[in-house]
Write a structure and sequence with these properties.
- The structure is a single chain.
- This protein has three helices and two strands.
- The chain is mainly alpha-helical.
- The protein has a domain of 36 residues.
- A two-stranded antiparallel sheet has the order 1-2.
- The termini are far apart.
Length: 77
């Protein structure tokens, strides 16, 4: 098992240190908070990727807006 270059022995050491630092009562709360944070980052990343793919798949509306915007002349005073 290798997650982000960290193997099982390293994860065990990190878990033991976290248990010593935060204590057994607070560790589950920190785990939940970390899980929710990572889930939020994951969903934001997926949404960003979806928007990028959408923009790359259909560049016509953006090009059309640019062309229409350049046709307009600024008002003269």
């Amino acid at each position: 098992m290798n997650v982000f270059g960290v193997g099982l022995p390293e994860m065990a050491v990190i878990g033991a240190v976290a248990l010593l630092v935060f204590g057994p009562k607070r560790l589950p709360e920190l785990g939940r908070t970390l899980g929710k944070t990572l889930k939020g980052f994951q969903s934001a990343s997926k949404e960003f990727e979806r928007e990028i793919n959408k923009a790359m798949a259909d560049p016509e509306p953006l090009e059309q807006e640019r062309i229409e915007g350049s046709d307009q002349t600024p008002p003269t005073s």
